[in-house]
Amino acid sequence: MILLAAGCKLAAGAHATDAGATALGFTVDLPKAANSEQVSTYFNVAIAADGSLAVNGVPVKDTSEVITRAQAAKEAVPDVSAYIDADKSVLYARVIEVMDAIRAGGITKVAFGVAPIAPVPATRTPTPLGR
Fold first, then answer.
1. Label partner for 121 (CA 20 to 30 A): which of 3, 50, 64, 79?
2. Measured CA distances, 107 to 1, 23, 47, 70, 101 (Å)
3. Distance (Å, rounded) from C-alpha 64 to C-alpha 41?
4. Domain chopping of the chain, boundaries
5. What pTM did the predictor assign?
6. Nearest of 61, 62, 82, 86 to residue 72 by alpha carbon
7. What's the CA gap between 89 and 124, in Å, rounded?
8. 32-45 pLDDT per residue, tens
9. Is residue 67 within 8 Å of 101, Cβ to Cβ?
10. Whether residue 21 has pLDDT greater than 70
11. Which CATH class name applies to 2-116?
C-alpha cells in the first residue's frame, strides 16, 4: 500500500508544513501533490537532500539501521505504518532503497510525505475521446 500524506505530525517534534519539514536540523523540501490524505504515523524516515537519514527524529548511519528499527516498530505495533519524508531533490533510487529497507523490516504500509497544493480550477470542459 502506498499513500501520499500531507501535513502529518512527524516524530520527535518535527512537523511537515507547506514549505517543508524540519527534522534534526535539516529541512526536507517535500514535493507537492494535489491528492493526499492526513495520516499520523508511528514510524517515520526522513531523507535529507544529501541522502542522510533520520528515523523517528534520530539520525541513522544507513539503511541497515532502518531495517533494525522497522523490525522493532513492527514488533511493538504489529499494524504499524511507515511514513517517508524525502526532500524533493533526493534521487528516486534512494527513496526506493529506503522503502525496501522499511519493508525488509516487516512494515508493508508506506506513505510518502508531500506538501499540499491548491487545486487548479478547470478552465474548459474536457472533450470526450473520439470526438
1. 3
2. 10, 22, 18, 7, 9
3. 21
4. 2-116
5. 0.64
6. 82
7. 33
8. 766 655 444 479 99
9. yes
10. no
11. alpha beta
Amino acid at 111: A
Looking at the DSSP bridge assignments, the partners of residue 5 are 37, 113
Cα–chain-centroid distance for residue 45?
A: 7
Band of pLDDT at residue 71, cut at 50, 70 and 90: very high
Least confident of 11-20, 44-53, 80-89: 11-20
Give the model's pLDDT for residue 51. Answer: 96
Q: How confident is the model at residue 50 (pLDDT cuts 50, 70, 90)?
A: very high
- Indicate the DSSP class of residue 9: B
Residue with C-alpha cell 511514513? 83
Q: Are 63 and 70 in contact (CB under 8 A)?
A: no
Cell numbers placing 1: 500500500
Calculate the alpha carbon distances from 19 to 51, 98, 104, 116, 121 in Å.
Answer: 19, 23, 31, 10, 22
- Express each pLDDT in 74-100 by its tens digit: 999 899 999 999 999 999 999 999 999
